[in-house]
Every structure is written in C-alpha cells, then in structure tokens.
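Researcher: I'm preparing a figure for a lab meeting and need a structural model of a single chain. I don't have an experimental structure, so a prediction will have to do for now. The sequence is pasted below. Please return the structure as tokens so I can convert it later.
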Amino acid sequence: MNTPFQKNFKNLCMKLGKNNDAVYGALTIAASKGILRPTFTMMDKKQEKKSRTYTAFREGLTGVVAFGSYLITNTGVNKLAHHIAKKANKLDKLPQLKSTLSLISVSLTALFVIPGICNYATKPLLDEFQKKNSKRHESLQKPKTNPTFTNLQYNRIYNNFNSGLRIGGGL
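Model: Understood. Here is the structure written out token by token.
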C-alpha cells in the first residue's frame, strides 16, 4: 500500500517534524489569510463597495506584512540564537534555543510589528491604490451622450406598445 504519494507525504511530514519551527505555522496562516480573506470579503455583496475594498485591502496588506515580518524576524532570531549559544558556550543546545526564540519572535511580531506597520501603511497605500484605480477606470469609460428621441422614434415606440391578450394570428 505504499504508493508514491504516500511515500512523498511521509517524507514531507518527517522533514517538517524534524525541523519543527513556530515560523512555519505562522507563515502558512499569514499566506492563507492574505489570499483567502480578501477574496471572500470582495465576494460579500451585502456590504458596501467602499467597505469591502477597504477591508479586503487591509486584510491583504496584513497578510503580506505578516509574511515578510515573520521571515525577517526569524532570520534575525536564528543569528541571535547562534550568537547567544556561542557566548554561553552551549552550542549543543542551539536547536532548542532557536525553537524557543522563534516562538517568542513570532508572538512579539504578531503583537507589535505587524499591527504597527499596517496602521502606519494602510491609509497612504490605499489612497494611492484608489487613485490609480480611479484613473484607470476613467480612461476605460466611454463618453456619455445624451440621446434625444425624434418624433419618428417616439411613434415607433408608442404605436408598437401592445396591451391585453391577443388570441391567434401574428404579432
């Protein structure tokens, strides 16, 4: 019963289990939230378009910022863990130190870094996005003309109006 899929799945699980780092879960959540939440928000037709646009933009930006922040802080924590282990002369405890510091960095990044960056960047980026979007939308619109009905067109519309039930025959 060992199919190639089962072998590959087992290998993947074994590799992830050996290097079980808190940042992997955080990156997965950030990526899925950054993609799925804006998609579902824009599909909700019960909300106003402006509200949906702001919410979707904010959720997408949060996902992108979270993903980048987790990568950057994790890289810094790994370097810091190596430095701490070397100073304490405990290089044999480096994997446990990295794991602990990774969990702490993910928590602190989620509490302080991501909300701070998003609060600072959302308004200017959304304004810029809406400017570009409105300019593109205006260039795609055709100039509106005001149609006027001539007497002949009015007579066609008025005379072709039928009410009631016609039995048999053509139109």
